[in-house]
């Protein structure tokens, strides 16, 4: 009978057999580090204006990728390898991009020590959407297309490599001609380089017609393609050095300013309608260290550009000049030209020898800004400029900004008669310990430069409404929105009497809670739309009508609504058009989209699923949208839909990682428990595929503040810079527990213990966690918590802690070298949450510092701390390592030389992930100890022997 059944099965139709049981389906395999090379990402996504084409790149984590052009009407796809810097033209007819050289070819040439100029160069690609054909132009340095119109591209060509003739190929001069030829030696031809400029090609895409200009240093299109503005050092024949305007309609070239080859022209600017031009020129041909840039201006119909502003302008303060670092800016209506100006910089005496220069930093107790911050801001400070404005009808120059009030924000795209200024300069001394620095705000009259103060000493920054009728701000101290009427000079509290909070309801920092923010203004500045935790409110800037909750159901249903700005140029909310809102359900963790009508404040649910949605981009001319969706088991591929997200219109366009089906992955679920402080908490539990509750699994606990809302975040197999890869570890049989942590001010370490330990206990009660093989892993703030936890309990088998703060006493007085900021603010007001100075509450600093309790540690600890860490000084890691070494505890420390807060270089990230995996596999799975743990890697073997071997 058994034999008969076997023969019958063999005789069955193949299609029927396949339906019942797939043939030759390989069992799924666990992820390994080799899988990194297979995984792709989609860093670029765009839809063209008429909604007929979607372009997206599919790139490996390391290597050559491609762009895919997806034709939505026909489903046809074209791909071009190594495409980057992609532009879809405004007329929806072309895609323009660069094609990069093959990465392996470039690497091989670099291995051969080839010079930069000998390496292969970029190619320009021009893809015609209708014909689906690609034109390629080799050796292109840079390119630009007009922003608002199609049909043109301008590109600079790389310098041609000189081929030097061989000695035997050179003609030998007659003896009698030698002297004569030496006397009449021809001038060497000029070369294309950064000093002289490069050949610029202007190409008309519709018919291929080209126009070439030599030795171009800089160029820019008018926004709507009226013309091309460029600066050249001249070609010694037909084109003199200077600035030129090429009219794209008449194909006529106009010399705006002719000069000399050593003159420098920069900050080329064209106004909205292409009728006016401004640029900055340095006409001094000497090497004088003190430069005197000048602003030139031209408009259609004038024969040449004219000098508009220079250092002699009477409106400028004494010894102020035109800034060479700020591009001029035309108002939208073209009536004003905003110009950056600055004091003449202090320059070094160039006659001094190096040994004659005194190089000393004088750190003063009353410096408004710490010297370390000044060093970090040095380049920006040297290039700082201050807005002034030229009223073009009268050529009258008015100063707007000043050293006292440097930051100016223009109103109504520069059309308004007022601007806005915020300054924190009077209060900067205290920002090294208090990050919520106070501010003064002013309305500035653009016609006279006169200032009217809006507020003083407020924890908030003002912004202007689109038509510049109002200034608005959120006062952190009052947790309320305010407005200021420019016309009446009246300040109005907008939300103080509303029963809900407009600042973070869950704030557990010893500082003012942050505002949930504003989404914008409705047309004509009629209403300001602001967020609370869940809903959107419409408030009258003069409070003549009561505030209205226009989404209504958010708080009741725990739905967080946020506006999706589909038009990046949108200046105000059009009440006649529906708004697309993202929605997130805090209870179910589902997310999706709703549609809101401002006509009747009606909400329509469009889509809510167990995914995370992002990157919503609309075609400019039609109601088509591209977006991504993801969850733990689904990669964020590209989707297209209409604005209603109807199933019939929604389509997945990309399949970046089909190989994912070959691998064991895992699942994720919400876990709930109560903290030791009786606070209800949530966390994420990642389980392996084919999870069996009757088995015992090793578990790693990872944490960083709150993560449970990220349940639908996809995790690709990639070398993460600082944390365990949840997909990798779940695929290899681990449980990963990610608990949320809430804090009590003054007790950050204890708070972590009170949240983590009962969460672990809850999971132990379920019976599938191997209580003898549980590890901890965290980085930065999570690294600190790991170091603290292992001083409080020996329950965990092993722990990895990256960029730890071991000693809060010494760290409090340290510097964040990335920014030059003092670390004091972090302990008094921010993440470290001690809420007091070292002298007010010294015991808090000691009790929360792992270093003082290192003798209690029995857990093997792997430390990661890099010597170029700009966030947490790496001496903190050294303190922890030295303490454990002195106490003879099992500890290792990884230091990736020259790397910052975490490994950045891909090879280093892979190395870290391998070592951390070997560390946990040894302690939690009983795998053999690798060589680097067993004997270390001596300095003489650094970079040679990785020590991965377990033999």
UniProtKB/TrEMBL annotation:
Pfam families: Peptidase_S9. Gene3D superfamilies: alpha/beta hydrolase. Residues 1-20 form the signal peptide. The keyword rRNA-binding does not apply. Residues 162-172 have a biased composition (Basic and acidic residues). Residues 162-195 are annotated as: Disordered. Keywords: Signal. Residues 753-926 form the Peptidase S9 prolyl oligopeptidase catalytic domain. It comes from the Bacteria. This is S9 family peptidase. It comes from Chryseolinea lacunae.
